[in-house]
Amino acid sequence: MSQVTIYTTRHCPYCVSTKRLLSSKGVAPVEIDVEQSAAALAEMMQRSGRRTVPQIFVDDMHVGGFDDLASLNDKGSLDALLRD
Predict the structure, then answer these.
(1) At what angle do helices 13-24 and 66-75 cross, to 10 degrees?
(2) In which domain of life is the source organism classified (predicted)?
């Protein structure tokens, strides 16, 4: 199974939704809280080119935010992506 990394904050409802969707797929992501670390925020911005959370990566591929993840799921593409 692919490794999923999400950059989050504690109070982000989209982060909660992301974790809930991934959990329903049997995925326990690596979670990096950017609220607690300026270095983690800088890393997220460098990797994704974005400042908002969540930012989701499957292995080294940037998926985007929650809406992007949900769209992949709705299209039926998420399961295959997680298995690679």
Answers:
(1) 30
(2) Bacteria
* Domains defined along the chain, listed by start: 4-82 (3.40.30.10)
Yes or no: say if 50 and 6 are a contact pair by the CB < 8 Å rule: no
- Name the nearest CA neighbour of 8 among 47, 39, 41: 41
Contacts for 77 with CB less than 8 Å, ≥ 6 apart: none
| Strand runs labelled E in 1-84 | 4-8, 30-33, 55-58, 61-64
* pTM for this predicted structure: 0.95
pLDDT tens string 32-82:
999 999 999 999 999 999 999 999 999 999 999 999 999 999 999 999 999
Residue whose entry in the numeric block shows the structure tokens 């809930």: 20
